[in-house]
Write a structure and sequence with these properties.
mainly beta, Collagenase (Catalytic Domain), Immunoglobulin-like, 4 domains, ten-stranded mixed beta sheet, 13% helix, metallopeptidase activity
Length: 661
């Protein structure tokens, strides 16, 4: 976990602040329908049978394109889907956007509400063409889930809308005992230990994390992945679980937020919940031992395993220490029924309601038994009127009320219930199970090329490399206003030197003025968008692109000569050189005469600037007859003046000699 908490997944980064400003402006986009019932789908009822908790369901076609504008650097209020129409089995409601969050680089979370009831909420996670969502309206729960089959669906009906019946959910936990993480023992579920975690610091120091962020890692089995609809679908569900849990914290006045640092599949054949949890915790038992390496690599404070065992919803260590901060959840309970947050609550010291746990502590969940009743996240259904009632996306907190009724009981009172106080008091300890230390800010890239007028309709885009960044988003629009490229790229997919990165999209740009932007990313930290940088794509035949020759490899020369191919029609060349410190050592235009390319096929120039030791790179841009060519692909080389064979100084013979040997 990182000491500075700016730019985290649960806070709108600067890259999204403009969205909020636009949302609160007077210019609003029209309400658009998020989905429609699919007709003629080749998805059969058999494709939907994995979930028997639904009272009804229907196959739908989802318009995931409604969310694309939120990721655009030049979005306008009219382009944003700030309101969405949802057809809940014949009842049409309007959801209004509250905020946008980004749990992962490959997804976005749309978080909103319906009307004035504090319980009515909408959370939608979009990743590619997949949408996973949870909707609460009039205390009824709905889910949008991605489904798949072996045949492609020509109508795009790859999603299902479900109305969930909580009475059909599996038990919260396996019967019997819950594992006590504070002492490495198990105690009866009706007499849980409430011992404080003594494995971590009790007061801040300069090396500790602040407690405002709990870094979370989620792994899943192959069986769970397949049941959820594949890797992309499961990853989106993980992001939904994180977003939903953070929303429950915000609802309940709980201070920390979860930050997802890793998600991925583990090689493991499922057993029972207790075995799976024990094996997840074990470091050298031969089961999922690589999870601990991943945990240390990504500095995860807590770890959860999603499985495909519907006998229960979850199991987690209670009052966890750094060595026992593990939980297991059935993938279909994890989000929508809040089991991911519930089990994490156990790790943080939260207990069940008084009907199932009589431990003398304030850390209980709460059941309201008036009318049909309701319960908070840590409460069981057994205490509800009739043995079942709606679970709210709230933690027990006596200072919060719903319809005038408190959502908990004050600490020190009879049947005290305040999960929110417990989670706030243990946040610092849990957040320090693993300590981070890397910066949580990224510099904004500087855009280099294309610039001016170019003849290349598929140009190479170049920008300065940002220290620490692992991914870059390149966003390109041509003169028609069409988005020609919008994608994240890893460093390995780009051509990067020590100081500059470049990428050549395959899309062809129309003639006219085009623009591009670049965004840097690392571990859910975003830079600001760089751009736009404008350039003109010429329709006329013009100046080509130079091919760079030397220097290359390693050179001992600190003032090397740069050589490149002669470009037909070019009368001037711009040589751009950056050294190992990212400093621009040369950036000037030179005539064909000055670059020794009035004859032959090669040009060259030797700048006077001395290059320091390390990796450097250079580029060439040609110009002729009023037209600029595209920048060349950069060429890297290494300056190492301390190695290699020096140049001899000649002494004799000199002058005139009669010696023929």
């Amino acid at each position: 976990m990182k000491k500075s908490k700016t730019n985290r997944s649960y806070i709108l980064s600067s890259f999204f602040i403009a969205i909020c400003l636009l949302f609160f402006s007077n210019v609003m986009a029209e309400t658009r329908s998020l989905f429609s019932e699919a007709s003629g789908s080749n998805l059969s009822a058999a494709d939907l049978q994995y979930d028997n908790t639904a009272s009804r369901q229907k196959i739908i076609s989802v318009d995931t394109g409604l969310f694309d504008a939120f990721n655009a650097p030049d979005n306008k209020a009219a382009d944003l889907s700030n309101t969405l129409e949802l057809d809940l089995f014949g009842t049409k409601v309007t959801a209004t956007l509250d905020r946008i969050e980004h749990v992962s680089i490959d997804s976005m979370s749309w978080i909103g509400h319906i009307g004035d009831d504090m319980l009515d909420s909408v959370i939608l996670v979009k990743s590619g063409n997949i949408l996973q969502g949870n909707i609460v309206y009039k205390r009824q729960h709905y889910q949008i889930r991605f489904v798949t089959n072996n045949a492609a669906d020509a109508n795009g009906a790859t999603h299902v809308l479900k109305e969930i019946d909580f009475s059909k959910m599996p038990p919260d936990h396996p019967s019997g005992k819950l594992p006590d993480g504070s002492a490495g023992k198990t105690t009866d579920a009706n007499n849980q230990s409430s011992a404080a975690d003594t494995s971590t610091k009790t007061s801040p120091d300069t090396s500790a994390d602040s407690g405002s962020t709990i870094d979370s890692m989620v792994v899943y089995t192959n069986s769970a992945r397949l049941a959820a609809g594949g890797t992309a679908a499961m990853n989106a569900l993980v992001d939904l679980a994180i977003t939903e849990t953070n929303d429950s914290y915000a609802n309940s006045g709980i201070n920390p937020r979860l930050n997802l640092v890793y998600k991925g599949q583990v090689s493991y054949t499922e057993s029972s919940f207790s075995n799976d949890l024990s094996r997840l915790k074990g470091t050298s038992d031969g089961y999922m031992d690589n999870v601990h390496t991943l945990r240390n690599t990504y500095k995860a404070d807590v770890v959860s395993l999603f499985i495909n065992n519907s006998s229960s919803c979850g199991l987690g260590y209670v009052n966890a220490t750094a060595t026992s901060a593990f939980s297991v959840a059935h993938w279909n309970c994890a989000t929508g029924y809040y089991s991911f947050g519930h089990e994490l609550g156990h790790n943080q010291g939260a207990l069940h309601d008084w009907d199932v746990d009589s431990t003398t502590t304030c850390a209980h969940g709460y059941v309201n038994k008036t009318g049909s009743g309701w319960r908070t996240i840590m409460a069981y259904a057994t205490g509800c009127p009739g043995g079942n009632c709606t679970r709210l996306k709230y933690w027990s907190n006596p200072s919060k009320t719903y319809s005038g009724a408190p959502m908990g009981k004050t600490c020190g009172s009879y049947h005290q219930a305040d999960n929110h106080a417990k989670l706030n008091s243990t946040a610092y300890a849990v957040a320090n199970f693993r300590q981070g230390g890397a910066s949580t800010t990224l510099a904004t890239p500087s855009l280099i090329s294309p610039s001016g007028t170019i003849n290349d309709t598929t140009p190479t885009f170049t920008w300065t490399k940002v220290s620490g960044a692992t991914h870059y988003n390149l966003y390109v629009k041509d003169s028609t206003g069409a988005v020609k490229h919008s994608a994240w790229h890893t460093l390995s997919a780009l051509s990067c030197s020590a100081s500059v990165c470049s990428y050549t999209p395959s899309a062809t740009l129309a003639s006219g003025v085009a623009k591009f932007w670049v965004l840097a990313w690392k571990n859910n930290v975003y830079s600001s968008w760089a751009g736009p940088k404008s350039f003109t794509v010429s329709s006329s035949t013009g100046i080509g692109v130079a091919t760079l020759y030397s220097p290359s490899g390693t050179t001992t020369d600190t003032t090397p000569t740069f050589t490149w191919s002669k470009v037909a029609g070019a009368t001037w060349y711009r040589l751009w050189v950056q050294d190992s410190t990212n400093a621009v050592r040369h950036s000037s235009w030179h005539s064909s005469t000055a670059t020794n390319c009035t004859s032959g096929s090669t040009c060259s120039y030797t700048p006077t600037a001395v290059l320091p030791a390390g990796n450097s790179a250079f580029w060439i841009q040609a110009y002729g007859s009023g037209t600029y060519g595209s920048w060349s692909v950069g060429k890297s080389f290494t300056v190492n003046p301390s190695t290699g064979i020096g140049t001899a100084t000649l002494y004799s013979p000199s002058g005139t000699t009669t010696d023929t040997t």
